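ARCHIVE CARD
Drawer: 12
Card no.: 0347
Subject: one protein chain, sequence and derived structure
Cross-reference: see card 0346
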Amino acid sequence: MNILVIPPFNTAQKTVLEAGAPSATFTYAAKPDITDEQVAEADVIVGNLPPKRLAHARRLRLLQLNSAGYDAYMAPGTIPDGAVLASAVGAYGQAVSEHMYAMLLMLMKNLAGYRDDQRAHAWTDRGTVDTMAGSQVLVLGAGDIGQHFAKLASAHGAHVTGVRRHVGTVPEGFERICTMGELFDLLPHADAVVCFLPSAPETRGLADNRFFSTCKHGAYFANGGRGDLVVQADLIAALESGHLAGAALDVTTPEPLPQDDPLWDAPNILITPHVSGQFHLYTVLDNLARIAAENIRRLSAGTPLLNEVTLP
């Protein structure tokens, strides 16, 4: 078995990965350096090879993405016949949740403003602050990332409600799980609304004027899922009116956000350039190596894969 590996695994992570197929040949290559011949010879590719390059993948049995999202690979014919696609759900929970939690606390404690004051050499008291303790937190998307976030917030004393398509069991960190059909009944009671939803027809543009006007006055909004969830002009209006206390975004539409986009200058907003995930926290690559190794084992054994994506 030939396995082509794109993510920048360190020695320990390579050891974990290679344990999934001890007799396989592993080739490690940065994305720009990968040749068509390497793609053609690969039985397994670990990493997000550009979709158009999969046309050369004659032997491919598994494309193990290094991302939780897989939209770019869903066009019919993108994945070669006979190959399966698997996402990296489970790799990013700690990284994304900690990033978004830190952004939310920065807003609640006026820390971004104090950073501005520091740069201006201004000794300023910015007044009262908010706390997660005792707050009502609504998490849209109760998967791996949402569950990690719920544990952080509940440990801080927040009361966390999760929203997803089906109720099912209540994961650790949540006090209850509700369905998307209940969303607009829940929004008026939330002190913070935190989103980790994927891009889908039913989520695109969900956070619009109706959504924000239904939110509790003085609530915080955070989005670490996909930028197309938000109608950005409506978010700006909600911030400018003071209806929302602040917003934290790690995702926008488009990306990169143009320099002249009005979202940059909305009041009480924190924007980071989609960096909560990627490979910035070492645990992401640790988790990815573990997930890929397990899927390689399962592929060899003919058993169902982790995070297998249903192709169109």
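Annotation on reverse: The CA atoms of residues 46 and 52 lie 16 Å apart. The chain has nine helices and twelve strands.
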